[in-house]
Write a structure and sequence with these properties.
Blueprint (H helix, E strand, L loop, with lengths): L3 H9 L5 E5 L5 E8 L3 H4 L12 E2 L2 E2 L2 E5 L4 E3 L2 E3 L12 H9 L5 E3 L2 H13 L61 E3 L3 E4 L2 E4 L20 E3 L5 E2 L8 E4 L7 E4 L12 E4 L4 E2 L7 H5 L13 E4 L4 E6 L14 E5 L8 E3 L1 E3 L2
Parallel strand pairs: 9-21, 15-17, 18-20
Antiparallel strand pairs: 1-2, 2-5, 3-4, 5-22, 6-7, 8-22, 9-19, 10-11, 10-19, 11-12, 12-13, 14-15, 16-18, 19-20
Length: 350
């Protein structure tokens, strides 16, 4: 990759807003430009308002550049490059640090942008498949990637970034973003649970290098059923509730009636996530990927624990099998969690 012009020309052949972006050390990443979206672009009956994830300090960003590939890490910096083993065994704070280390504008991909890509794919008929069955698609077993990590007892595992077919890209073309479904779960920024309360970083502020997403940060806001953002702990905010001690079904409620522990969780296929009777679901909760759009079909399971702080991982992994899918969401993990199927991708705004 010593010849930048050759690399840039090769990437341009993908089309569709693919380009090489250099970090502050002059090292390349292959990125895909995602133009700003409106609620109507991704949600049934959505308004013409720009999604908040593209708004920073009152100004709208025309494009957010998303890593085409799950990231590898070189010298504590994240890079989006093809045919690499995705960085695994990475916790949330390190994923954030590796992304921000690249310079101003670089950040860990926002939860809302990941959700927007998933919803856009559904609306446009290109729900991506991926490595959800030990190097192959669980849905289409003939779709395979190139192994980079093999679990001895299963004969498969992680696959090289972008090594699958174009149906593993978000738009089913060579121009798309790879591996949003399967291969590795992805840490995303700007969202969390705290004792079941759904909290987000407002607007696109999670992209800012000085945005604090620490456990005690005051930048976190909770969500009311009418969509207003309020201080965490305000009465009546939206929460994840476990139906009962004997029924682990997940529901959206304005209170927590049954709490999980570290040894159990609550879950449901994401498309079947429901609200407790009488609880309204605002459009921002759907756009943030915490509640399904009307008629949503994208596969993936939604797991949660409503005790303590839980940071989101999205998109499922190489051993998710029938629970895998681009809509999969895990809200089980502390920010210190690491595993062989947990990775991340950085993004960039100008």
């Amino acid at each position: 990759m010593g010849n930048f012009d050759d690399l840039a020309l090769a990437v341009a052949s993908f089309g569709g807003h693919n380009k090489v972006i250099l970090d502050d050390l002059g090292k390349p990443s292959i990125m895909v430009g995602v133009p700003k979206m409106k609620y109507s672009d991704i949600i049934t009956g959505g308004t013409q308002e720009t999604l908040p994830w593209w708004v920073v300090e009152g100004g709208e960003k025309n494009v957010i550049w998303v890593s085409k590939y799950l990231n590898c890490v070189v010298n504590d910096r994240a890079y989006s490059l093809p045919m690499k083993d995705p960085k695994a065994y990475v916790n949330f704070d390190d994923a954030l640090r590796f992304s921000r280390n690249k310079g101003e504008g670089w950040h860990l991909l926002q939860n809302g942008v990941f959700a927007a890509l998933s919803l856009w794919s559904e609306k446009n008929g290109t729900i991506p498949r991926g490595n959800t069955n030990w190097d192959a698609s669980y849905e289409k077993a003939w779709e395979r990637g190139v192994n980079t990590y093999i679990d001895g007892s299963h004969g498969g595992g992680r696959t090289a970034t972008g090594s699958g077919p174009v149906t593993w890209n978000h738009d089913h073309s060579a121009a798309g973003i790879a591996d949003l479904c399967g291969n590795c779960w992805e840490w995303v920024s700007g969202a969390r649970l705290v004792n079941g309360e759904i909290q987000i970083i407002p607007y696109g502020n999670a992209m800012k290098s000085d945005c604090s997403m620490g456990a005690d940060s005051t930048e976190w806001k909770a969500i009311m059923p009418d969509g207003r953002l309020v201080e965490p702990g305000t009465a009546g905010t939206l929460k994840i509730d476990r139906t009962s001690a004997s029924d682990s079904t997940l529901r959206i409620n304005t209170g927590v009636t049954t709490q999980t522990t570290d040894s159990n969780d609550t879950s449901v296929p994401f498309k079947d996530t429901a609200a407790v009777s009488g609880v309204s679901i605002p459009k921002i909760l759907i756009a943030a990927g915490f509640f399904p759009d009307s008629g949503q079909k994208a596969p993936g399971r939604f797991w949660a624990r409503n005790n303590g702080e839980r940071l989101p991982i999205r998109g499922s992994s190489f051993f998710s099998t029938s629970d895998g899918g681009v809509a999969a969401l895990g809200l089980l993990s502390a920010r210190s969690f690491v595993l062989n199927d947990v990775s991340f991708r950085s993004a960039f705004y100008e």
